[in-house]
Amino acid sequence: MHLKVLTVLAAVGTAMAQRPANMSICDFYTTALLEENTAANQYTLLTLVVNTAVIGNYTMPNVGIAVPGILAPGMYEGTEVNLLPYFNGGLASSNRGGSAGVAINFLDDGGAVPKLLTHLYQYFGVLLGCSLEGTGDSFPAYSGQGSQYRVHKFMNLSPAEVGYFITQVGLSAASFGVATEDVTAVGQALASLFNYRCAPPTTVVPSQGPQLQAICIEDTCPLSENATCASYERSTEPLVANATLAMGEGMNGTSTTNASATVSSMSTPAPTQLMAAGARFAVRGSLSLAVAVVLGTALMACVAL
Questions:
Q1: Residue of 28, 55, 30 whose CA lies nearest to 284
Q2: CA distances from 214 to 202, 265, 301 (A)
Q3: CA distances for 111 relative to 66, 102, 117, 121, 145, angstroms
Q4: How far apart are CA 301 and CA 58, in angstroms?
Q5: Helices (H), strands (E): how many in the chain?
Q6: Tell me, what DSSP letter sits at residue 239?
Q7: In this structure, are strands 256-257 and 102-103 parallel, antiparallel, or unpaired?
Q8: What string of pLDDT tens digits covers the 305 residues of the chain?
Q9: Residue of 11, 303, 20 lying closest to 177 (CA atoms)
Q10: Phi and psi torsions of 140, nearest 5°
C-alpha cells in the first residue's frame, strides 16, 4: 500500500483536478493521492504533510518544491529564524503546567516524541477538515491541549518565527501537489488563528469550545482587531537551558530543565540529533520503510546545507 503511495505522489503535478467547494482539503487530497478516502489514508496524508513540514523534504516524493523544514534555520522576510532550540532542549520554553517554561528535548528518544507527533497529526486533521477523524482507531480524535496559547506561552514567538512555521506547512502541502489556492487557504487559516496578539478565544476543536489560540505573543506581533490582552499573561524571552543547543536564542538566567533532557542527549550536536530524529519521525508516523528512507534522506540533505 505505502509503496503505491510513493508511485502516486511522484506522479502528482499541476494536472490534479480542482477541489470541489463542498469537499474538505483533507478529504479531497486523500482521495486524489491515496485513491480511497478512508480514516487510515487520511492519517497517512497528515503524517506525510506534517513530517515533511517538520524535517523538510529534498527528494521524492514531491513535485519539485524544496521544503527546508521547521527544524532547519532559515529566513522569513529578511529575518533569520531558528526554531530548533525550542525542540532540542536548548531553551526552557515548554509548558508543563508551572509558572515558568521547562526544557524538553523532543528530538531525544523519549515519550515526548510520539505524543508530540500524534497531536500534530490530529490537530491538523481538524484544521484541514478530515471527515473521518475520530471515527475509529485508524485516526483517533484530537486529544491534546485546546489552547495553543497555553502550549506556546513560554516561547515568546515573534512574527518571523510564526511566519516561518506557517510557510513550512504551506511548502510541505505544495510539495505533494496541493493547489496554490488551497495552500493559500491553509496559510490564511493558520495566520488568523495564531498570528495575532491578544486574539479572543476561538473554537478549533468543537468539543473543546472557545480557547485562546494566539501563539505570536511577542510585543511586535500584530494586534488582533478584537484584542483581549487581559486574557494573556505578559510574555518574556525563554531562558537558556543549554547554551550550545540554544544557538544564541533566548536569554541567560536560571531555568528549570525537564528530566527528559538528559546530559547525554543535551550534549549531542544538533545535526546528529536531527538525523536521528528524522528516522524516528518517519517510523513513528506509521510510514513504511520506503517513506522512512525518503524522509531520512531529505533530512540529511537539510543538515548538509
A1: 55
A2: 9, 31, 33
A3: 30, 16, 11, 16, 17
A4: 7
A5: 11, 6
A6: E
A7: parallel
A8: 434 433 434 444 444 678 999 999 999 999 999 999 999 999 999 999 999 999 998 555 567 889 999 999 999 999 999 999 999 999 999 999 999 999 999 887 555 566 778 899 999 999 999 999 999 999 999 989 999 999 999 999 999 999 999 999 999 999 999 999 999 999 999 999 999 999 999 999 999 999 999 999 999 999 999 999 999 999 899 999 999 999 999 888 644 444 333 333 333 334 444 444 444 444 333 333 333 333 333 333 333 33
A9: 11
A10: -65, 155
Cell of 216: 505570536
Cβ–Cβ < 8 Å for 134, 39: no
Q: Which residues of 252-261 are buried (b: 16+ CB within 10 A; e: fewer)?
A: eeebebbebb
- The helix (run of H) or strand (run of E) holding residue 276 is helix 270-284
Q: Is cis: bond before 61, omega within 30 of 0?
A: yes
Dihedral sign for Cα 281, 287, 289, 294, please: negative
Q: Which residue has the cell 515533511?
A: 52
Contact 284, 114 (CB under 8 A): yes
Which string of DSSP letters, residue by residue, matches 119-186?
HHHHHHHHHTT-TTTTSSTTSPPP-S-S-HHHHHTTT-B-HHHHHHHHHHHHHHHHHTT--HHHHHHH
Residue 302 and residue 69 in contact, taking contact as beta carbons nearer than 8 Å: yes
CA distances from 98 to 93, 102, 119, 228 (A): 11, 9, 21, 23
pLDDT at 288: 34
Q: List 79's β-bridge partners, or say none.
A: 76
Q: For residue 67, what are the β-bridge partners?
A: 57
Cell for 5? Answer: 503511495
* Residue in the block written with cell 543535551: 266
